Structures
1.
Amino acid sequence: MVLQSLWLLPWKVTLCVASFLLTADYGLAFTTKFGRHTPDSSVNSKSGLGQRGFSKPPSTKHAPFKSKFSSQRILLHPLATTSTTSSEIERQFLDEKQLDFILGYLNKHQGNALMKFSEAFSKLGAEKAKKNAWSGGSYNIASAKIVGIDTVSFELDVQVQIRNEDPIVERVAIDLDAMPVSKNRKLLGSGTIPPPVARDLDLPPIDEIVRRLCRLCWIVNEPDATGKLFQLGIQLAGSDIGRLKENMYLNQCPHNRYVRKYFYDMVADATLEAAILCSKGRISNRMKITAMFPEMNPSMDSYRIGTILEMIRTVAIKLVEQNLRVRVCVQGSMGVGIFTGVPKQLGGVSKLLQMMDWQSNEGEENEGMVGNYMNFGNIGAEHVVNAHVREDGTKVEQDDVFILIAPQSMVGVDSSIIASLKEMAEAAGSRPIILLNPDLTDKFSSQGQQNVRGRQDRIDFANTFETIWHFNNIYVSGTSYFPILGATFKPGPLNMWASYQRRDLAKEQGEMYIPIIAGEEKPQGDQILASFES
């Protein structure tokens, strides 16, 4: 009868009375997926990580949770959970060391980001906006503390200060794939909100958590936190993807052969992974690789064509080892009249490819594996070979993968590579077509004019090629390429982008690259510069 009559009272009074009756008279407590909690209760420090529910499935047998605000009320906010449902997603849990470290780090160093999370991804933000619309400052989020996290969601204890009332602590559960509930432009900015990351990447739990936290940081305009989170995943025994080798000394040219091999192997592994993903329909068959360390940067005097050819050889043999037929293509002569030719960067490359020793001799690593699986050609639909039988009865196998070396337009008339490249991409169908260090921007004509007709179509076509591996160094603005300040790196087709700052070790013991910003999109120059200065 008491409960039935509560509807006659004001809603705030009803909520307080109902809470008192449920907890006092009926002995009930608030229970969430992270454990069972009762107001103003104590914590058993020996109950293990089950009370935070992340190193093992959640249990309700441990001692109840106690907030550090022991003299204040702690409520489970009725509108706190996000709208994203996660019941069908399998939860994965961190081990004890990882959990303690990440909770301690976030609470100590990323308190501002945690407060923004509570405002952007829970109804607390909407409630704050509603109450402050009538009287500014009447409802404020004073602090937020993370109390639990797994690969699906995390929970925050948020201290809320309401004018003329005692502070309260409200527990909010936030999905790691949440979309913002708040529409506060000051909080979210005006950028595009990145969609949730796919959950079929087979990552370790710590990498899953870090990647999703980085996305939330970008949404609430906390990009500087992403680099530290990225480094945290590496330190806490993640997959180690994204760690750059120490002591590469890329300022020294020619590069050490071990440094070259380091890049060759990374590109080859990423290319094979991309080919496999393409065969499963996971990514587009139009791909590009950008390798712009000093020996492969044509705008520097350290440019070495042999490095490109060695990289192509490593990548091609990696694919051939999987019984894939590879065709390496270099664009032919373009232009009209005296302006006919090939880009300076590609001069003589086609002939050098033919002269390279592609056949492994007896006793070598790839003996008998290359055979006729390696072929060469130019860029154009006529160089795409499909399976057929010649007139003499000889069976011709189709090419499986196409690798195009530095396709680019030239200055002059009829010197755009886009038309030939587009025809070749269409002829290849669903087979992987991979561009190495492409430059698909429009060039001026020999009279200094730029063709505007069809320019947007050319830009749209160039954007259909997705990055599967990327590395470029960051330099001081201007024409100087010294010193190297850092690098931008994407280690694979499904991996995050990250920008790094190069730092010298103490007592000239070497150098290392420290991640400063990470996300699903390539960092822009102003974002990198701001992170360098912060």
2.
Amino acid sequence: QRPRLQKQQQLLQKQPPPPPRQRQPLQKLQPLPQKQQLPLQKQP
């Protein structure tokens, strides 16, 4: 029961910090180029 608690705490502490900061800029930059490429390919 001791190793299971430590593994769950490490996963919870390691996942929250990186996703919020790396997901904000990646999601904001991806929707712009992906939305512009969709209409450009459908028009021609």
